[in-house]
Design goal:
globular; single chain; 13 helices; 78% helix
């Protein structure tokens, strides 16, 4: 598979997260609570990926490998829990800005753990993404926005956990088949969510049947697909570029809120969307150039 294919796969993983906020709002408007929606998302998502796993090629893993992958799924569950906590004291626009800080935290992870210093081009790309995120989240035109320290901490923790999950997706058990890897990452997230939100909805058929359609959709795009796509693409693009590509989440979220919920999206928000897409494209062009230069250097060495 070509390098740009892996970048596209990670980009699509970010797009999956972008559709979630719209359908979470629909689930809330249907009368379901945050614990029910969150628990349903991770429960149905885990069930979906395990159904796929049952029909995929099997591979034997050691107990240690299984345990490591289960632990690696914990940051995925904590991301959602911390983000929902931040929403209790922050406006949605501010909360998503704090979550969006993963675009530069991923580069720091790559610098610290992979000893790969960020290039000037990557830093410019990150700056464009952060400016675009501020516009796309409509934070500039909002008046009376309240910044709470509790919400700020929860939002930054959500960003840190999301970066950690992206990093682990590309670093842990690289040789494990993506479907098997995802099938073990998801239960790790599910255990954390159920520990904090006991799954009482599983024992109430009326709630479970009504929650089912929302849980299946949120589970597919929030739990089943992203780990699978990241497991395929992240080992090849790295956490630095990976977090830049995952910034596709916000443009999709803005577009979905406009198309599905008929929410008003200002011209400045659309400019922010275009800036984010431009920042992603800029980062990917530099990535492809870096790969070409690396190959050329290897040929000269030979």
């Amino acid at each position: 598979m070509k390098n740009w294919h892996y970048a596209l796969i990670v980009f699509l993983g970010g797009c999956c997260y972008g559709v979630l906020s719209t359908f979470v709002k629909l689930a809330y408007s249907a009368g379901f609570s945050a614990p029910e929606v969150t628990g349903g998302q991770y429960f149905f998502g885990t069930v979906l990926i395990w159904i796929v796993f049952l029909f995929s090629k099997k591979r034997k893993l050691t107990f240690k490998q299984i345990f490591i992958l289960l632990l690696s799924g914990i940051p995925l569950g904590l991301t959602g829990l911390f983000y929902y906590q931040s929403l209790k004291t922050l406006d949605a626009s501010l909360a998503i800005i704090f979550l969006f800080q993963f675009v530069w935290i991923g580069t720091i992870f790559e610098w610290v753990f992979h000893r790969k210093k960020p290039s000037k081009e990557k830093l410019v790309s990150i700056a464009i993404l952060l400016i675009g995120s501020g516009l796309a989240a409509n934070i500039v035109s909002q008046e009376g926005t309240v910044l709470s320290w509790q919400g700020t901490i929860w939002g930054l923790l959500a960003s840190l956990m999301f970066t950690t999950f992206i990093f682990l997706s590309g670093s842990v058990e690289k040789d494990t088949p993506p479907v098997l890897k995802s099938a073990l990452l998801s239960p790790g997230a599910l255990i954390v969510v159920f520990a904090l939100y006991p799954p009482t909805f599983l024992f109430d058929f009326s709630v479970l049947s009504g929650l089912g359609p929302y849980g299946l959709f949120l589970g597919l795009f929030g739990v089943a697909l992203p780990p699978l796509l990241f497991s395929i693409g992240m080992p090849h693009v790295g956490p630095g570029l990976g977090t830049i590509l995952t910034a596709s989440e916000l443009p999709v979220a803005v577009s979905m809120s406009s198309i599905v919920l008929s929410e008003y999206v200002s011209w400045s928000q659309w400019i922010g969307v275009l800036l984010i897409l431009g920042g992603i494209l800029s980062g990917n062009i530099k990535y492809k150039k870096g790969k070409v230069d690396s190959v050329a250097e290897q040929k000269e060495a030979l």
